[in-house]
Every structure is written in C-alpha cells, then in structure tokens.
UniProtKB/TrEMBL annotation:
Self-association and partners: Homotrimer.
Family: Belongs to the fucolectin family.
Pfam family name, one: F5_F8_type_C_2
Protein name: FTP domain-containing protein
The organism of origin for this protein: Macrostomum lignano
Domain of life: Eukaryota
Length: 182
C-alpha cells in the first residue's frame, strides 16, 4: 500500500506494476490487488509490489460463552469441527435453553482478526427456522443482520469487520441450535 497519494496516482501505480489487477483508494491510502483477490476472502500483503492477495484462514476461537445450555449443547460444539447437522445423532450443535428470551452465543479469538464472512451450519433434524432472524456482531458492533422467511441448512453471511469477539444473537424468543465453520 502507498500512503499519502491521490486517486489518479494510485491508478497510475497499479498500471505500472506487474500483477496489479485493480486498486481501492481512500483519502491517503492506496491498496493494489491482484486478480486472486476476487476469489478469496481476507487481505494479505504480498512482498512483491505491494499487491494484495487474499488468504482464507479459519478463525482461531479460544473461548466461548452462551446465554444458557440445554441438553448438553455446550458452546465449544460450534467450532469443534464436527459438521453433522443432526443434533441428537451428531452431538455437534450448541443448544441454548428456550426461556422466552432471545438466545446468544459468542466466542473469543486468540488475536484480533479480519472477519470477512461466517458460515453457519443450521440444525437439520428440526427447528431450523429458529435462526431466520439473528444479528452477527464483532466486538459488539453488528456486521450482518439476518432476516429470512425460509430456513437455511448451510449459509455464509458476510461480516467485514475487525475484532476479537464474534457473537450471534437470536432476534426471536427461541433457543439457538447451530454450529459455525468459521
């Protein structure tokens, strides 16, 4: 990246560098990127010509919490790697108690990170509409609001936020049963 240059200088810089496919410009910040930036989901600086490519690294969750626990559906199940969507058969989903309040789940990252998207594997054996309305947050700031009329099985939601704590808050008075493949 080049700081302190104008938009035209940024465009010219891209046109003269091998591997540069495009650029983004904010006042005082020029970022050049290669074509691979369109096929991946997280910025990584390359030593060659300050051309950015994208790196897809799974988030490293180190701790978690949730509003309540039902049927042994503890928060760690959300990122244990088990993708079985059958709550009883796979023992892989988290489950909060349906106490008439919106359920929530949150996880702490080992270090602050750019969170470009989150993939959620919804419970498939029943109750999948419970996640039709939810808020995804990073460090307490909403990065995506889900408002669906049809339940999903597996969905990827954009987030585009930087932080160290990710949370999912159900906007309905239902328990949460899901897991993420961050």
């Amino acid at each position: 990246s080049a700081s302190g240059i104008g938009r035209l200088n940024c465009a010219e810089d891209c046109s003269t560098r091998s591997g540069c496919f495009g650029f983004t410009w904010l006042p005082g910040l020029c970022r050049l990127f290669s074509l691979s930036a369109f096929y991946n989901l997280a910025w990584e600086s390359s030593a060659e010509c300050d051309v950015y490519t994208l790196n897809t690294t799974k988030l490293n969750f180190v701790a978690c919490n949730q509003s309540s626990v039902m049927q042994n559906g503890v928060c760690e199940r959300a990122f244990d790697g088990n993708k079985n969507q059958d709550y009883w058969g796979g023992l892989s989903c988290i489950h909060t108690d349906n106490n008439g309040q919106p359920g929530w789940w949150e996880a702490q990252l080992a270090a602050p990170a750019q969170i470009s998207h989150v993939t959620i594997y919804n419970r498939a054996d029943c109750c999948s509409s419970r996640l039709n309305k939810m808020s995804l947050t990073v460090d307490g700031v909403e990065c995506h609001r889900v408002d669906l009329t049809v339940a999903f099985s597996i969905a990827t939601f954009s987030c585009n936020a930087f932080g160290s704590k990710f949370a999912m808050i159900n906007l309905q008075a239902f328990s949460i049963t899901m897991f993420t493949n961050q």
